Fold these 2 entries.
Entry 1:
Amino acid sequence: MSIKIGMPKFPIVSAPIKLAMLGMTEGNGHPYSWSIILNGRYDAVALAQCPYPAIRDYISKQPSHTLGIAGAEVTHVWTDDPADAELVAKVAKIDTIVSNATDVIGNVDAVLVATDKGEEHVERCRPFVEAGIPIFVDKPLCNTRRDLAIFSDWVNAGHPLISSSAMRFAKEFAPYHQATHELGKLEYVNFTMAKSWETYGIHSLEAVYPIVGPGFISVQNTGHVERNILHLSHRDNIDINLVNIYNLAGGAGMMTLAGTHGGVQLRMADSFYAFKAQLTSFVDYLRLGTPPVPWEETRELMQLVIAGIESREQGGKTIYLKDLE
């Protein structure tokens, strides 16, 4: 039997809500940016040492009054490399650095698992699930059937746990969320993204999902590890092409929506807005207890991630979501 130590009441009514920022993987600087966005402060000298130029750029351009999410604060930080935690703490002015991730149990109200390796997330989350602490998990939540089954069991048992991509919250795409009537019947969607399908495929999926809604039928990935080319079919007879090419930085976040009467091309440009809206949705979840994304949607999105991997590994075989149930 798991012993729940310092388990907070949920929803959380205390203010400020104390958060722990946990973990850092290569190429992912979310502990820096997320901590700044939540805390509403940063040390400019320390920020100049942050190894992520994009974060330095968009954070430094923000008016100070746009930083901070009322009623929540990152009070503890742990990273896989202790040196990273020291710099994150200096940058976002975080009071406490812990030696082990589990040291935050009993001292915070919720945790953010700020790593993007889905294959690690079950074990990174397990101690906090067992302690009854609410968790936000960076995208993707997972990338195997086994891990999705574990997360499903945890959520169905009532554990407060959510995961999302910032693309869902991009202001450039929001006007078309379940609202493409001006285009006639939506027939075709295309989305391009950089990096790997395993880590950034969820960005592609979660940009498109709120527009077309649930009801995906199948996935076919005819690409390879560094050039993932996917065709997805949807119950509303929409054809969707998602392209994740590792070095496609110039095309990241570009979307085409085409219908029987019109079409539009969009591109995400304001990362700060999307990240702040995403983090605000987590803080609201902690306060209100209502998840910003229903678990059924998160589960279907993870099935799509998994199907994309399995199709590629099986030489472009079409994978039907009904077979992943």
Note: The chain has a mean pLDDT of 96.
Entry 2:
Amino acid sequence: MENALHLGVDIGGTKVAFRVEAGVRCVDESSFAWGPRHSAAQDLAQLAGHVAGLRSRLGAPLRAVGVAMPGTVGPDGRITAWPSRPEWNGLALDASLRALFPEAAVAWADDGDLGALAEAHASGCEDLLYLGVGTGIGGGLVLRGALCPGLGRGSFEIGHVIVDMGGAHCVCGRRGCLQAIASGPATLRRAAELRGAPASFEDVRRGLDGEEPWAVTALERTSRALAAAVSGVQELVQPKLVLIGGGFAAGIPGLVGTVSGHLAELARPGRPAPPVEPAALGGLSSLRGAVSLARLVAP
């Protein structure tokens, strides 16, 4: 339906973003920052208030809603882990979203999966691996134009692929997860240890520009871990393209090239490394992916 309204919602740890499209046109974009942390019920009330304002501005019913969710959701549809907002643990996500949007078809998926879906559309590549390197590490895999493993079958948790059995502790409770080694905060912690002094994001950027050994070594460990995870995915499903996005990656221009170099080193005869490029949509990938999900639910 050409004039049907499709809403994408990107729920984050600090803010929530909305995008409404009618056909190929964006007709409304908005966002809000979460209030003080108290309870999931209060968060949902704040979300409902913003949705009410959105409906008033649109003046027409929503056909479908796609929601990008960063937390881990169990088979029963309840949130089992969301370190950024632990108050949501145990929340029945599916029921809560349907209560917010009773007039529309509703679906949710992992924000990394939806980021991959949006990046695949933007790049025109139907077999693509996406990694979002920021506060954590998310990502998604698109094969033949569809998300893998697919809606209702869980998310593509590349951030929790173990790349170092004796590595750092992860928030999930295990050791050596990619996220615990190569996320933005993990990289900054390692840089501070090597420097022997605190190291902010800007400190690391300046250190890399000046080729300071502590900064170069810290990023080298991150790059190698990312390349190892990508190499493992390549051996299993052979994506044609790898895109790296996320706030931390976007702020370190040399990261993509370094990962590409290490991935080439890991290639074996007969299995060349796929190209590695910067993601095209930056911080908008999950939101755009949420709109794409809405279109999949109800075209």
Note: The longest strand covers residues 25-33.
